[in-house]
Every structure is written in structure tokens, then in C-alpha cells.
What does this fold into?
Amino acid sequence: MELQAIDFDESSLTLSESDFAPELPHFSEEPTVATETVKSHLLALENYLESANRESEYLSVRRMVERLLEAFSGQCRVSAESVGRNLDLVSDWLGEPRLGLSLAPFSSRSHPHLDFFFRQSHLGLFDYCRMLKRYLAITTDVFSVTLERSDSQLALVFHPHPDIYISRHQTEGVVASVC
It folds into this structure.
């Protein structure tokens, strides 16, 4: 999956020789998602349901979120595959076929580390994309992200993990959050 390439001004970049080398995707053996990312998605689910006036589902989800947050206590990362399967279950239960797209705006706003990330406006486009790539690598192992550059374009390329189940909602959520 590839986001549309962005044309850039050569003078706004800080480049080193290694920035021109082709980059290969890197996948971990047992992909995980940062617990903070899952927590922000769970809270986003609450916020989404509340904003959509779906109070009965909101109360059920609130209880589920509280139990999951207790279960995550002391853990830094959780299995990416089980997160994807649970997203599918929640989507089916809510009758929400585009859950990842619905949650992304709420999740991005509630993730504890994004405030710092979005204040980095002093960076050039290439450096900002490298920072975004690094941030994505920390939050999830579901995708490997490479940064490709040509003479006048820069592209973030998303490579889904080849060995695990990835839900449509995970794909939508990652791409919507990046956008």
C-alpha cells in the first residue's frame, strides 16, 4: 500500500548519503502493538460511540475498556494479531464496517505521545517523514514503513506483515492516522 507521493523542494531537506540507499522492509518475528496505542484506540472507541449517540454500546464498551486497561497493566506491548481479531469482533458487534476510519481521528488526538510529535513543525519534509516512520515503528509491528525518494518525490510505503492476520480496521486506522 502506498500513499500518494509528495513533491518537495530540494532546499527544505537535510539529507545524508544513506538517505539515497534503497530501504528494505523489516518485520519482527512476533509482531506487537504498543499498549499505549491500544489504549488510545480503546478510548477513541468510547469517544466515537459517545459522539455518535450510541449510549447503550458506549456503556458496554466502557466496561470492556476498563477490563482491558487492567489486563494491560504493567505490559508495554501486546500481540498485534489478537488486536486485529478483536477489532473485527468489535466492528461486527457494532455493525461498523469502517471502524478503523471511524476511530483514527479520535485515536490520534488521544495518544499520549503525539502532542510532542505534532509540534515538530521546524523539521523539513524529509526529516518529518523519517520521524513519522520511526513513530510508526514504535507504535506497531503490523506494518513496516519504508521511505522512498526519487529526484522530486518522497513516498512512505506501507508493507503489511507477511506472517500474521491483519484486520482491515488496522490497515484503515494506520493509514487514516498517518493522513
